[in-house]
Structures are given as structure tokens and as C-alpha cells.
Amino acid sequence: MFDIKWIRDNPSDFDAAMARRGLEPQSAVLIELDGKRREAQTKAQEIQAERNRLSKEIGAAKAKGEDAEAIIAEVSKTKQAEAESEAAAQAAGDDLDDVLAGLPNMPLDDIPDGDGEDDNVEVRKWGEPPTFDFEPKQHFDLGEALGLMDFETATKLAGARFVLLIGALAHMERALANLMLDHNTLEFGYTEVNPPALVNDATMFGTGQLPKFGDDLFKTEDGYWLIPTSEVPLTNIVAGHIVEEEYLPRRYTAKTWCFRSEAGAAGKDTRGMIRQHQFTKVEMVSVTTPEQSADELERMTSSAEDILQRLELPFRTVVLCTGDMGAGARKTYDIEVWLPGQDCYREISSCSNCGDYQARRMKARCRAKGEKETRFVHTLNGSGLAVGRTLIAILENYQQADGSVVIPEALRPYMGGLEVIAAP
């Protein structure tokens, strides 16, 4: 959401920002809708003022013993006219909000322009991809050969894009999540939260999933939505609140199942665990003052990178271009881990600064100590990390010629000291 007053004052700048997102100019439509709303509001206020004047005349007439019936009738007419003007203002305001709610965030000036992932810009790289004296396999071939990854049974139970992890791989997923949570809470100052996995319309709207991306979500018959990421409930913790700035930034982390319909993913990553309807993710969310958010994005990204470094998984970090960035973000870093089986880097974390885009939708504000005025907070979110994709990366980077998989040293304490996963 945006400040319509800012758009009125800066229409060219707003249209230029939307153009970088691939959209036609929007300011004229928005300003016209805002004009209708303001005109109706002004008319309602004028009618209210007229009614107040007439009410005084009624009092004066009665005090003199004069007949006030005509004035009373006029007051009744103004009530109807005011109600009609208020309804018109509400309708125009709703139309304005609907258009604003469907627009993406304005990218920061330092974001590269581009149409898609080919225009993203690499900012750093860590680690060297491993070399093998054999043809490296993809994770699903490794997992199935170990007897610990079962897609066939999962399909029977639920359908396509599900998996059954068994034994040591089920343990590894749990171990990875625990490592990530300990890392985030003990070393990077995040507060662990166990949030609801079902949320209402307002919560989905607050972080920008609704109304535009409803097709990507799962909805229950009684109106709840399954969360696509714990960003949704974690960010909405501050919805409707005024937070004292001395207590910012607030940092939250959670491990949850995430649910996505993958409506636009037909034919993409149909084998394996890369793109599933249900997956586990550890999320990071920060709520900051406007001045803190730029540095907080760098800090959040470094936290996610640090986990990969400890697991000794090669990765690169890219800044997303305007055409590849999510609708709610002003700036996004994607961290991409090396997958030998695919011979390429694949996204494992996405860290975004949303500015005040979500805060305006949630009505989340902050206030400096001793001040009366408030302003919108800034919100950030990032994967720390996608647990299933981290498991995939370990399988592919630590695979051995005999099909066994070495467990990274940093993960062994979370797996009871187990060093190698091998077929029975």
C-alpha cells in the first residue's frame, strides 16, 4: 500500500517506479479516485456544517415560540444527503484501496532493472563446488537408493509434489531445523515463536498475499488460509500496534510447515523436493524503524549465509532485479546454493526489505520516546533457511561414490553423532 498524498505530490516519480516494475502509469487513475473520495467527503462535511447551522435555528425558533417544522424538515433532508455523500466517499475510497492493494512495492534506487532472473546481479560467492571422480546424482536418486525418500507412497497418500522422508533423512530435516533455530536465537538475537499455521483474511492481506496471490495459497472450507511461510503470522504480530522505537528492531524466527499450491509451476521441478506443496522452513522476520531497515537487511542476509558456511555448502548471493523481485519487496537478496546433481545454483533463501509496504496494510506504527507523532515501521523477512532445500544440498554436495552421504560436522551433534548415512 502507498501514501496517496505522496502520489498526488509526486506522480511522475510514482509512475517511474511502477514502470520499473513493468506497469503502465498508475498515478492518474489513483488521483482521480482519490479526487472523487475527497470531493464526496467535502460535500458530506459541508452538509454536516449546514445541519449544525439549521439545528441552531431550530433551537432559536423554539426559544421564541416560533414554528420550527419547516427547519426540522430541512434537517431531515440534510441527513439523507449526508448519508449519500458518505456512502459515495466510502465507495470511492474502497475503489482506491482496491487498486492500491494490487500494486507492487516501489524498488529502491540501487536495484538493477531487468525482466527476470537472468538480469539478477551476483554480489558475492562463497566456497568452491566439490569435484567428484564419478557422475554426481540428484537428490531424489540418492534418497530413493538409500530407501529414505519415498515419493510413490506420498503420492498415494496426498498426490503429486509431496514426499515421505524416512529414518535418517527425517532425522536430518529435524536436525537442520534445530540447528537453524539455535543459530538464529542464540547467536543472532531472534526470538523463537511457534505461530499458527492457519490464518484469516486480514493476516494474509497484511503481508500482501491477498488479494493478488490467492491462487498460490490453500484455503480451508471454513475460510482459514494455510500459511505459505511463517512470514505471514510473524510479521502480523505488530499489526494494529504502535511500537515504541526504543524496543526496535524486533526479530522473530519460527520453524513451520509451509503450504503452496504452486499454481504457476506446471512442468517445473516435477521430480524431487525442490518445489513441493508442503515443506519445512525456518523464517526470520524483523520489524524496524525506517532508519534501521537497510542495515537490518544486510544483517539478516549474513545470518542466512552463516548457516551455509557452517554446513560448508558453496553458495552465491545475488541482488534481484526489478522483474524478478517479489511484489512486496523494495530490495531482495537471493542466496543460491550449489547443487552438483543439477550443475547449477538454486535458491535456498530470499531476504527482503519491504519498507513500509506491509506496515501500511497492517497499520503497524512506531513512536520515538517522548514523541506523540507516529510513523510506519519497516518490515523485513528472510529464509533462514528452507530446510528441505538445505537437505537436498547436503545430499548432493556430500554424496560418495557408493551412494552414501557424509553428514556435515556442524550437523552431527544434532544427529546423535552420526557421521554417514548409508544404505542398509
Produce a short descriptive summary.
The protein is an alpha+beta fold.
Give the overall form: elongated
Q: What order do the SSEs take from the amino end to the carboxyl end, as H and E?
A: HHHHEHEHEHEEHEEHEEEHEEEHEEEHEE
Can you count the beta strands? 18
Give the strand content.
Answer: 15-25%
Residue stretches low in confidence (pLDDT < 50, at least 5 long) are none
How many independent structural domains?
2
The level of helicity is 25-40%
Walkthrough of the structure:
- The structure is a single chain.
- It is built from 12 helices and 18 strands.
- It has helices at residues 4-9, 11-20, 27-63, 69-101, 139-145, 151-157, 167-187, 201-206, 231-235, 293-310, 357-362, 387-397, and strands spanning 121-126, 149-150, 164-165, 191-192, 198-199, 218-219, 225-226, 242-244, 250-259, 278-288, 315-319, 331-339, 344-353, 365-367, 375-376, 378-386, 405-406, 420-421.
- It folds into 2 domains: 4-101, Serine-tRNA synthetase, tRNA binding domain (Helix Hairpins, Orthogonal Bundle), CATH 1.10.287; 117-421, 2-Layer Sandwich (BirA Bifunctional Protein, domain 2), CATH 3.30.930.
- Helix 3 runs antiparallel to helix 4 and helix 7 packs across helix 12 (387-397).
- A hairpin with a 7-residue loop joins strand 14 (365-367) and strand 15.
- The chain is 39% helix and 20% strand.
- The strands form 5 sheets. An 8-stranded mixed β-sheet has the order 1-11-12-13-16-10-9-4. A 3-stranded antiparallel β-sheet has the order 5-7-6.
- With 424 residues, it is α+β, with helices and mostly antiparallel strands.
